[in-house]
Write a structure and sequence with these properties.
By secondary structure, this protein is α/β, with parallel strands linked by helices. It has helices spanning 14-28, 53-61, 75-80, 89-102, 132-156, and strands at 2-8, 35-41, 83-86, 109-111. A four-stranded parallel beta sheet has the order 2-1-3-4, sandwiched between helices. Bound molecules: 4-nitrophenyl phosphate (4NP).
């Protein structure tokens, strides 16, 4: 079982959408049974909440399934997950700090956009204070990045 965790700040916009996009790619590749996928936030602002309405609307538009309640990243996540993908450098710093505090390795914590095959930046922009077109843009970024991530994992784990 390959364990993949997506991390953003609030866990209501970018990381649950990334989780839904990645799951869709796993379904298309008939790989769902090989993976455990989750998402969480570095902050505790929205713990227990459903994804943002605009995240849900984006999922509806692209026929993505999404069942998620926001949670905060824990030290155990650093040991449990094989691949931890963060949305921006703030998230990277926060997760690395958490790892450092508990003496855990953080080499498996990476910017998701490292896997974007057509990047215009190294981060996924935060759409929280934006509008539906910002969510649309985030969807396209996540779609490319999640495809690159899946390709990378299939190569490195020799599956598929
Ligand atoms: P996310 O977006 O990190 O992509 O879930 C945000 C959600 C909430 C807040 C900021 C970003 N907030 O400040 O409450």
């Amino acid at each position: 079982m390959i364990k993949v965790l997506f991390v953003c700040l609030g866990n209501i916009c970018r990381s649950p959408l990334a989780q839904a996009v990645f799951m869709q790619k796993l379904k298309e590749a008939d790989m769902v049974d090989h993976f455990h996928v989750d998402s969480c936030g570095t902050s505790g602002y929205h713990i227990g909440e459903e994804p943002d309405d605009r995240t849900i609307e984006t999922c509806r538009q692209y026929s993505l399934q999404l069942q998620h309640r926001a949670r905060q990243v824990t030290p155990l996540d650093l040991r449990t997950y094989d691949h931890i993908l963060v949305m921006d450098r703030h998230n990277l710093e926060d997760v690395r700090q958490l790892a450092g505090k508990y003496g855990y390795d953080h080499r498996h914590v990476r910017l998701l956009r490292e896997f974007d095959f057509n990047p215009d930046a190294d981060y996924v922009p935060d759409p929280y204070y934006g509008n539906m077109s910002d969510f649309e843009q985030v969807y396209h970024i996540l779609n490319r990045s999640c495809q690159g991530l899946l390709d990378h994992i299939m190569e490195t784990h020799s599956i598929g």
